[in-house]
């Protein structure tokens, strides 16, 4: 697909760049395109084709619908894959196609869809506000994109491929700037990238008379030394040690600086090859390859362990307060392109960061302590309140006082109202501060408990999934339903997980929202979704005997659809309001916490 | 290999120490643990204070950065407000550390941090806020700490305190 882009940018280039026809689309790409369409409903596993999605999901399906095939199985599939590829050309353009990570998919209307509940109901293909465009690349795609760029620079500028790669990395893969700069001031650019043109200055090791290494302070005669173009010279042992540590331990490659204090000179590949062992040089090249993704703001590695895919998304850092760019990798992992954390819609990245920090912060505990403990007014020892009674007696000095007003209990008489009046009269700052801290803590705990509850459920995802599998097998046996007919349970399970993930973040989000009519709508949406999820959850937990009832199946399918619908409404509403903030419309007011 | 370098640096630091400092080994048998007495720089809020600074050189020095701690309590945005006295200094971060950088340069950077705190890269966010928004209050508090903790000769304790991890 990179080829297409190149064609657009350089329509006059010779034939290798003119390959935007269907034959040029590699089969792997086609396969991937098909998978993309199905990603939506499959948060847990990558699948090559929608139609066999559910069968493929199961590790050992007792009655698989069909065997998984990695090839296109209909003309229609092929055409839809093709059109996706064509769309790619315009990825950054106005008409950017949407690659929904949600439920929108009506390419397969010709037969009943096993993922019924998850897929249907959204109805139209209307682009929802929380939806962002993205594209997943597999390692081969990433390699091909780099190779294409290297080849292009190699041809246009007549520079060998190795050097072209160094130059591209030096320019952080900004090919246009590289070409422009190199045409303007070739020698300077080559020099800066560590590619001096003079053969005499090729990197070499040499002993220098009277040399003392500034790192190890060795000065023995004949000591081999090395210096980059900056002239900072060190012994070969120190250089080797330094580079090995950078590459091996720190995983650094493209930006290893000269060991001198304050020198920003970057080590070039040729120098590195001269200094280190071949296997370290291999590792270095491997790391260099990764910089292609790391250098581009529009590319991010999928953070799932062992996943080597990268995702491209055009959402800019500065827009992260207005959009929550959730993307879904082919491996099934759903994450935020902005901050790489797991999907946290509807809460914006910044807020998520704040919330997580708050949750981790010990200061909350400190607040709790100050809200639930006080110091004895006489001896200052710490007293914890553990019952409802305000009559406190210090364990240490036996001083009796009132928890509310800290006044002497003996002066209180027996009436609560005395205390109240007393409080009104004096009202010291210390008391106000304590009351405030207690209130803010209660507020925090309200949201935190609900957040944590949904998070806990999310952690059980794996169990739930396995439980569902077992249940589906049992249900087939008990009810005589076919594998396809029990898929509704799978859909329900996935919906539950996805909705809980969303609900979890709605609580963090709500914690920071100031009260206004938007918050009320938000809380209504939240309540609707939560109630639907709890109801579905309850049905889902029913024993298999009850699930055999086909009426219950219909109810569960309806509830699943309803949950999905509520989730979409909530996310859509929130995303729209967030986005509107940018255009001068209403925006959520955040508490300045 | 490291000992030759460390020995050379130590000699330099003891014979011509960086300004406002006195440098020696914690005990003669350990080249990797240094005691530094640092006088609060004149015209800084820490003037008049005497600070016990502990420098620990890792086994892999100079390829790994030394760690520096201010054992005397100090009120500063970039030093933890506790008994550890961990310091946030960008040249000491592993990814920024250069093996050619010398301890004396590090010590001068520490001293410079007292002259000019870096509130944008704080270890104590509250103190950093105060430094930015209420300089008078900050200076008052900093001076109070000097009076309270840093008046006498610097106190190092008997043994070098165990290194403790702090972020
Ligand atoms: Zn050396
Ligand atoms: Zn240099
Ligand atoms: Zn992935
Ligand atoms: Zn994010
Ligand atoms: Zn008491
Ligand atoms: Zn009272």
UniProtKB/TrEMBL annotation, chain A:
Highest taxon in the source lineage: Eukaryota
EC number(s) on file: 2.3.2.31
RING-type domain: residues covered: 209-423, 213-259
Pfam families named among the record's database cross-references: Ariadne, IBR, IBR_1, UBA_ARI1
Keyword Metal-binding: yes
Keywords: Metal-binding, Repeat, Transferase, Ubl conjugation pathway, Zinc, Zinc-finger
GO molecular function (one): ubiquitin protein ligase activity
SMART domains in the record: IBR (SM00647), RING (SM00184)
GO biological process: protein ubiquitination
Catalytic activity from the UniProt record: [E2 ubiquitin-conjugating enzyme]-S-ubiquitinyl-L-cysteine + [acceptor protein]-L-lysine = [E2 ubiquitin-conjugating enzyme]-L-cysteine + [acceptor protein]-N(6)-ubiquitinyl-L-lysine
This protein's record includes keyword Cell membrane: no
Biased composition (Low complexity): 52-69
Protein name listed in UniProt: RBR-type E3 ubiquitin transferase
Organism: Sodiomyces alkalinus (strain CBS 110278 / VKM F-3762 / F11) (Alkaliphilic filamentous fungus)
From TrEMBL, chain B:
Single annotated GO MF: ubiquitin conjugating enzyme activity
Residue ranges of domain UBC core in the record: 1-151
Keyword Transit peptide: no
EC top class, as a word: transferase
UniProt entry keywords in alphabetical sequence: ATP-binding, Nucleotide-binding, Transferase, Ubl conjugation pathway
Enzyme Commission number: 2.3.2.23
Pfam families in the cross-refs: UQ_con
Full protein name: E2 ubiquitin-conjugating enzyme
Source species of the chain: Sodiomyces alkalinus (strain CBS 110278 / VKM F-3762 / F11) (Alkaliphilic filamentous fungus)
């Amino acid at each position: 697909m990179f080829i297409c882009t190149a064609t657009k940018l350089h329509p006059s280039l010779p034939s290798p760049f003119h390959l935007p026809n269907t034959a040029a689309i590699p089969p792997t790409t086609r396969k991937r395109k098909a998978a993309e369409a199905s990603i939506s409903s499959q948060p847990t596993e990558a699948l090559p084709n929608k139609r066999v999605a559910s069968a493929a999901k199961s590790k050992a399906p007792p009655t698989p619908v069909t065997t998984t095939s990695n090839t296109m199985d209909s003309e229609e599939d092929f055409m839809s894959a093709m059109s996706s590829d064509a769309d790619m050309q315009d990825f950054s353009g106005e008409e950017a196609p949407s690659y929904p990570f949600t439920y929108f998919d009506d390419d397969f209307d010709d037969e009943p869809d096993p993922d019924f509940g998850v897929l249907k109901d959204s109805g139209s293909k209307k682009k929802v506000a929380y939806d962002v465009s993205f594209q997943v690349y597999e390692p081969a795609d990433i390699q091909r994109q780099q190779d294409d760029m290297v080849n292009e620079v190699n041809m246009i500028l007549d520079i060998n491929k190795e050097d072209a790669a160094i130059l591209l990395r030096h320019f952080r893969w900004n090919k246009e700037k590289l070409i422009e700069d190199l045409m303007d001031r070739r020698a300077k650019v080559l020099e800066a990238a560590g590619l001096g043109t003079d053969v005499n200055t090729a990197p070499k090791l040499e002993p220098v008379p009277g040399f003392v290494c500034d790192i190890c302070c060795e000065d023995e005669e004949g000591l081999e030394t090395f210096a980059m173009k900056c002239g900072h010279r060190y012994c070969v042992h120190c250089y080797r040690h330094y580079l090995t540590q950078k590459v091996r331990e720190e995983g650094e490659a493209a930006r290893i600086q000269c060991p001198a204090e304050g020198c920003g000179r970057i080590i070039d590949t040729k120098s590195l090859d001269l200094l280190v062992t071949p296997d370290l040089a291999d590792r270095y090249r491997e790391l260099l390859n990764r910089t292609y993704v790391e250098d581009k703001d529009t590319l991010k590695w999928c953070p799932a362990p062992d996943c080597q895919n990268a995702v491209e998304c055009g959402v800019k850092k500065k827009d992260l307060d207005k959009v929550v760019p959730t993307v879904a990798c082919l491996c099934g992992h759903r994450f935020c392109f902005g901050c790489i954390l797991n999907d946290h819609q509807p809460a914006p990245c910044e807020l998520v960061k704040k919330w997580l920090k708050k949750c981790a912060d010990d200061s909350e505990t400190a607040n709790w302590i100050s809200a639930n403990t006080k110091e004895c007014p006489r001896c200052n020892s710490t007293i914890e309140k553990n019952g409802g009674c305000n009559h406190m007696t210090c364990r240490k000095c036996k001083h009796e006082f009132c928890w509310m007003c800290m006044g002497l209990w003996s002066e209180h008489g027996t009436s609560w109202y005395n205390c109240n009046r007393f409080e009104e009269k004096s009202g010291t700052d210390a008391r106000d501060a304590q009351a405030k801290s207690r209130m803010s803590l209660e507020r925090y705990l309200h949201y935190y408990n609900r957040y944590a509850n949904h998070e806990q459920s999310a952690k059980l995802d794996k169990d739930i999934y396995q439980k569902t599998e077992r249940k589906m097998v049992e249900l087939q046996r008990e009810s005589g339903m076919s594998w396809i007919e029990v898929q509704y349970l799978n859909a329900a399970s996935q919906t539950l997980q996805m909705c809980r993930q969303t609900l979890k973040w709605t609580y963090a989000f709500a914690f920071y929202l100031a009260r206004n009519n938007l918050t009320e709508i938000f809380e209504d949406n939240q309540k609707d979704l939560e109630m639907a999820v709890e109801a579905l959850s309850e049905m889902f937990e029913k024993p298999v005997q009850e699930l055999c009832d086909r009426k219950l199946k219909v109810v569960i399918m309806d509830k699943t659809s309803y949950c999905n619908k509520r989730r979409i409404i909530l996310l859509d509403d929130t995303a729209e309001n967030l986005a509107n903030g940018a255009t001068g419309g209403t925006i959520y007011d955040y508490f300045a916490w | 290999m490291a000992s030759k370098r460390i020995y050379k640096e130590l000699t330099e630091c003891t014979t011509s120490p960086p300004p406002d400092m006195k440098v020696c080994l914690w005990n003669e048998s350990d080249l990797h643990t240094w005691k530094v007495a640092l006088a609060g720089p004149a015209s800084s809020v820490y003037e008049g204070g005497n600070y016990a600074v502990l420098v620990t050189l890792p086994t892999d020095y100079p390829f790994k950065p030394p760690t520096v701690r201010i054992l005397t309590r100090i009120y500063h945005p970039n030093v933890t407000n506790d008994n550890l006295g961990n310091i946030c200094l960008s040249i000491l971060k592993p990814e920024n550390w250069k093996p050619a950088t010398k301890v004396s340069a590090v010590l001068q950077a520490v001293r410079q941090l007292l002259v000019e705190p870096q509130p944008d890269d704080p270890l104590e966010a509250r103190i950093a806020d105060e430094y930015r928004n209420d300089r008078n209050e900050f200076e008052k508090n900093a001076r109070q700490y000097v009076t309270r903790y840093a008046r006498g000769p610097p106190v190092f304790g008997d043994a070098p305190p165990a290194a403790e991890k702090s972020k």
